[in-house]
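Anyone up for a design puzzle?
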């Protein structure tokens, strides 16, 4: 009888340990998925900003002259009063076709409206969450390494929004490459993520 109770007790302890480990693994998986989704969400917001930088940059070069405020509003998707507030306007009410000044103006808009700060804050939260996940269960070690790579790519992407530089061609090439790298890492993480049984 005592032997039967001892075996039953040991079985119960083993089951409890497996259950705790399983609960921790599920929690780890959920947190890892959440941080990955947040990185993709942040990258999506950056992509929208980078697309506008590229459009302003390209339009400023191609315009070959002063740009009416209404045209710049169309190019950026911003209201005319926002353009008037953040872009340099000449004495006849147009925007000079200086791409450098216009990129700076759009960057200033993002800064003054808090959009850049939101990106940086989200990035800090993501970085902290990744630090909390730095001791992955065995089945999640490869996935965690992929998440670190994705984080590196998203940080570079955010850097492009904070400080757009280079030539239009190099800017567009870099943003396309990073966008592709981020999406590919996300898909790889999804493929490597162990399923919950």
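Challenge accepted. My sequence:
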């Amino acid at each position: 009888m005592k032997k039967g109770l001892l075996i039953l007790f040991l079985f119960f302890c083993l089951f409890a340990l497996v259950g705790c480990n399983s609960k921790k693994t599920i929690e780890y998986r959920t947190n890892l998925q959440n941080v990955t989704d947040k990185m993709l969400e942040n990258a999506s917001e950056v992509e929208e900003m980078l697309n506008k930088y590229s459009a302003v940059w390209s339009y400023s070069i191609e315009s070959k002259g002063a740009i009416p405020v209404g045209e710049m509003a169309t190019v950026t998707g911003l209201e005319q009063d926002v353009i008037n507030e953040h872009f340099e306007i000449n004495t006849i009410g147009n925007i000079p076709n200086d791409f450098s000044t216009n990129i700076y103006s759009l960057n200033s808009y993002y800064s003054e409206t808090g959009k850049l700060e939101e990106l940086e804050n989200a990035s800090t939260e993501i970085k902290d969450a990744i630090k909390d996940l730095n001791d992955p269960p065995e089945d999640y070690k490869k996935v965690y390494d992929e998440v670190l790579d994705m984080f590196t790519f998203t940080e570079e992407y955010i850097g492009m929004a904070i400080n757009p530089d280079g030539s239009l061609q190099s800017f567009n090439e870099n943003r396309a490459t990073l966008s592709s790298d981020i999406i590919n890492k996300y898909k790889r993480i999804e493929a490597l993520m162990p399923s919950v049984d």
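A detail worth pointing out: The longest strand covers residues 67-68.
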